[in-house]
Design goal:
60s Ribosomal Protein L30, Chain: A, 3-stranded antiparallel sheet, 7 helices, elongated
Length: 210
């Protein structure tokens, strides 16, 4: 497993984290770019033009990069780091993850609600279990995620709160959801690992505790 929670594959490109100095597959890092105005922006899709600056998808690494002025060092010029950079990154990763869930729902590859999720898990259709970080421990314990595959990657997403999961299903709150196997599930797991790393602990930012 990589520092950001993604499994290493032989052909996956690697980048060097400016905070840790370690090289890792890009799935476990977050790309930042410096805009024409000299402001640092998160680029969670890694598609914005410009030279990328990479940071491990961990709150401690991002905090270190900000505190030590490592973005300016990497850019080789003075740059401005917005005071809400962590919040910007958190919101961008949430939008991306919720988008994956919404697309899966529209394609018939995702369900929400305890009974439907339980049925999918029992039938083997569910490849990923999604549970709200602010759901009750007792309720969450009633459902177990599908077994991990040969790559050892987790099949549980539990870094979103009930309101965030609800956005993907057109509901106010969703505690339990499930994803079928497929590309969207894999991408959701990858982005969930990054979001969980940035949030530092499950649901901390979502619950307003940081």
């Amino acid at each position: 497993m990589t520092r950001g929670g993604a499994a290493r594959t032989r052909d996956e490109p690697e980048r060097r984290c400016i905070a840790t100095g370690l090289s890792a597959p890009t799935a476990g890092l977050v790309r930042f770019v410096v805009g024409p105005d000299g402001v640092v922006w998160p680029d969670v899709a890694a598609k914005l033009p410009g030279r990328g600056i990479w940071v491990s998808a961990e709150r401690a690494a991002l905090d270190r990069a900000v505190a030590k002025g490592l973005f300016s060092r990497a850019a080789k010029r003075a740059v401005t780091v917005p005071p809400d950079l962590v919040a910007q990154l958190d919101a961008a990763l949430v939008r991306r993850l919720v988008g994956h869930l919404a697309l899966a729902r529209k394609a018939g590859g995702a369900v929400a609600g305890y009974e439907k999720v339980r049925d999918w898990l029992m039938s083997g259709r569910a490849a990923v279990l999604v549970q709200a970080a602010d759901g009750s421990e007792r309720g969450r314990a009633k459902l177990r995620p599908p077994p991990a595959g040969d790559d050892g990657k987790t099949t549980l997403i539990d870094c979103l709160n009930a309101g965030e999961i609800g956005l993907a299903f057109g509901r106010e709150h969703v505690i339990h959801a499930a994803l079928a196997a497929g590309g969207l599930g894999a991408r959701a797991l990858e982005d969930a690992a990054r979001l969980a790393g940035i949030r530092g602990r499950i649901g901390a930012i979502a619950a307003g505790k940081e």
